[in-house]
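Subject: design request, 343 residues
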């Protein structure tokens, strides 16, 4: 393969999971890539000492969205200076391919790919509502891949094979899982505690990811209710936890949503109301419109709707989720990139 490959983006787990999937696919093909992220997100924790990489670079970059006045100007100038740095790097390493997975971490490396002669830009947009950076740079991209865009050559989302391997068709709800993400979601935690007594009466077991900040409180509340629940703050065993559940209550970040689809796990989504462009709501609405999930906003949460969802045709939804996503998305995307770069 001619030239080096750069994977850029991150900041949050959703972006970084996709970056990791690209890194793994290239590595399995005998190609070590360069990762360019930010020192201000979760990027370092994921890739700082990653042996699969040719090089990992973490730039002191920050987001521009929601900033005003001098702060906005400072961030924009910082991105400009880091773009020049990336251009020098691309010349040194003969970078011919840049894959952006979005997030503020991707800005400088993505803009540099546009200005570098002979460099092709590819974008993976995770959400139903395109992020601001991708909206600007997609006009210069060779291809944009998205699970929510009908024009995308590959519509499947890059999901770890663990979620497919542990998939099963659910028949009835014996175990329910509440997932608020690694940071947790007080809204989901409170709702879980509210419905827990009735779930206990129904003989339904509870798995509950609380997030680190709310773990002690939630654990204590279950003890007061005398309910034995699998309560944890964070776990690397999410695929296993998910496979034990017959139904889930969750945020609607793209990676979590498609992981549940891959696992054939019916879900009740409560989107994070401050998500950019309300993208979590629209992520879940894609499944809702196909009758493949349940969805309510935080401000309209209803116990009646929730228990009605539990009594719905879980078996039918679980079966139909099987065909909603295929397991080889990242391999197909990389095939297209490698073929394009021969031209």
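Subject: RE: design request

Done. Sequence follows.
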């Amino acid at each position: 393969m001619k030239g080096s490959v750069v994977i850029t983006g991150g900041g949050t787990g959703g972006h970084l999971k996709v970056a990791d999937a690209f890194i793994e696919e290239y590595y399995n093909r005998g190609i070590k890539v360069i990762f360019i992220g930010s020192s201000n997100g979760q990027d370092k924790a994921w890739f700082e000492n990653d042996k699969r990489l040719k090089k990992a670079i973490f730039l002191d970059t920050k987001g521009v969205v929601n900033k005003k006045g001098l702060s906005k100007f400072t961030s924009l100038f910082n991105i400009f200076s880091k773009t020049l740095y990336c251009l020098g790097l691309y010349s040194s390493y003969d970078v011919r391919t840049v894959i952006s997975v979005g997030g503020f971490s991707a800005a400088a490396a993505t803009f540099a790919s546009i200005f570098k002669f002979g460099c092709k830009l590819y974008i993976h947009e995770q959400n139903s509502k395109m992020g601001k950076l991708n909206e600007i740079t997609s006009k210069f991209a060779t291809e944009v891949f998205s699970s929510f865009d009908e024009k995308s050559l590959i519509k499947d989302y890059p999901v770890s094979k663990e979620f497919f391997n542990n998939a099963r068709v659910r028949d009835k709800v014996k175990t329910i899982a509440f997932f608020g993400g690694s940071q947790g979601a007080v809204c989901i935690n409170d709702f879980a505690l509210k419905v827990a007594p009735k779930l206990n009466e129904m003989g339904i077991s509870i798995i509950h990811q609380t997030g680190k900040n709310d773990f002690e409180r939630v654990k204590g509340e279950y003890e007061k209710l005398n309910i034995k629940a699998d309560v944890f703050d964070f776990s690397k065993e999410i695929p296993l936890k998910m496979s034990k559940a017959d139904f889930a209550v969750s945020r609607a970040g793209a990676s979590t949503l498609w992981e549940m689809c891959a696992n054939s796990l019916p879900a009740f989504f409560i989107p994070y109301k401050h998500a950019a462009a309300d993208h979590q709501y629209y992520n879940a609405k894609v499944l809702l419109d196909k009758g493949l999930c349940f969805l309510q906003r935080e401000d309209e949460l209803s116990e009646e709707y929730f228990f009605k969802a539990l009594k719905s045709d879980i078996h039918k939804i679980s079966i139909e989720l099987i065909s909603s996503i295929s397991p080889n998305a990242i391999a197909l995307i990389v095939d297209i990139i490698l073929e394009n770069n021969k031209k």
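The longest strand covers residues 95-100.
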